[in-house]
Design a protein that fits this description.
Blueprint lengths: L1 E7 L8 E7 L6 E10 L2 H7 L16 E8 L11 E4 L2 E3 L5 H4 L11 E2 L18 E5 L4 E2 L6 H4 L5 H11 L7 E5 L3 H12 L3 E6 L5 H7 L3 E4 L3 H6 L4 E6 L7 H5 L2 E9 L11 H5 L4 E4 L5 H13 L6 E4 L4 H9 L6 E5 L5
Parallel strand pairs: 10-11, 10-13, 11-12, 13-14, 14-15, 16-17
Antiparallel strand pairs: 1-2, 3-4, 3-8, 3-17, 4-5, 5-9, 6-7
Helix pairs in contact: 4-5, 4-10
């Protein structure tokens, strides 16, 4: 086994602290990764605090992982020592159900295996990327292309694919008007990616405080949703709306911003239900949908796309002893736009 330094939540509601964890021995199809950077996702906070259900503790979060291959199993064919690689929100699936065979491992009928907080095949609990090392089967390791620095690439393994997948599936591109609700960790990547796809991009945010950032990132328009006139002015304007916020919204008001056959796709995950007025859908043949990350092949496609268009996340690199402070700042929306842990500070 490999001994790794890590930061873990000892219990729900308690501050994360240093811990030593054991990584499994490298099996025939495994890849040992020397983790260089790990992004902090809002879902890390929800999970370790028990807000999305009971957890086993101590728990090491982190599913935005970028690093270097340190060792490979004797049957590994995709990677070699020294390769630049990443790991996202899942580290395994059954591989045999129809969804897995279609490249949608995230929807595995038998349950995809989350990067942390999931019961692994041997009965242990998976531990995430706030650590110096991780061992992952080669089929769930991604190649990080040259041209993407590892620190700005780490958040792409969640924030990047979470926004890329619905933008691609619902046809963002030239001639399409796309609105992004919220300009945070997810929203800022959605703006960058939608603009690179050729769409006309509008940011819908509570206020105009981040307007300069939104336009810099690629949006052509920026509106404050706390202004009632915004919803009047933009009625029936958009082909696609990507909602990135994890808070309750008046969904019907946003649906009224869609053109006929438009779609609103939720990628944020608020704990509260989101009521929808059926007439807001029926009146314009509109759709209200959801999307969760992407499969491994699509995630690799996203990384290649981002490298081609020079799209990394906007980040603030922190040391491990700043993780708890960073959590508080995430909750206060005081980050532009993703915290990334330099895992060298774990040693």
């Amino acid at each position: 086994m490999t001994l790794a330094k890590a930061y873990a939540a000892p219990a729900a509601g308690e501050a994360l602290r240093p811990i030593d964890i054991e990584r499994r021995s490298v099996g025939a199809h495994d890849v040992l990764i020397d983790v260089k950077f790990a992004g902090i996702c809002h879902s890390d906070i929800h999970t370790v605090r028990g807000e999305w259900g009971e957890q086993s503790y101590p728990l090491v979060p982190g599913h935005e992982i970028a690093g270097i291959v340190a060792e490979v199993g004797n049957a590994v064919t995709k990677y070699k020592v020294g390769d630049r690689v990443g790991v996202g929100c899942m580290v395994n699936s059954c591989g045999t159900c129809d969804y897995c065979e279609a490249g949608d491992e995230q929807y595995c009928r038998n349950g995809m295996l989350g990067t942390y907080g999931a019961v692994d095949r041997d009965g242990s609990i998976t531990q995430g990327g706030y650590s110096t090392h991780v061992v992952v089967t080669e089929d769930f390791v991604l190649s990080i292309p040259e041209g993407l620095d590892l620190d700005v690439a780490a958040p792409l393994l969640c924030a990047g694919i979470t926004t890329f997948s619905p933008l691609q599936r619902w046809g963002a591109g030239p001639g399409k008007k796309v609105a992004i609700v919220g300009l945070g960790g997810l929203g800022h990547m959605a703006v960058k990616i939608a603009a690179a796809m050729g769409a006309e991009v509008t940011v819908l945010s509570q206020s105009l405080s981040k307007q300069a950032d939104g336009l810099r990132l690629g949006a052509q328009h920026y509106y404050a949703t706390k202004d009632p006139e915004t919803f009047e002015k933009l009625a029936s304007s958009f082909d696609l709306i990507i909602n990135t916020v994890s808070a309750p919204l008046n969904i019907s008001s946003y649906l009224d911003l869609l053109r006929v056959d438009g779609a609103m796709v939720n990628v944020g995950a608020p704990a509260e239900p989101l009521p929808v007025n059926a007439m807001a859908l029926i009146g314009g043949r509109r759709s209200f949908a959801g999307s969760m990350i992407g499969g491994i092949a699509e995630t690799q496609q996203m990384l290649d796309f981002c490298a081609q268009h020079h799209l990394g996340a906007d980040i603030e690199v922190i040391s491990a002893d700043q993780i708890n402070e960073a959590y508080d700042r995430v909750l206060a929306s005081d980050v532009r736009y993703r915290f990334v842990i330099d895992t060298a500070t774990l040693n």
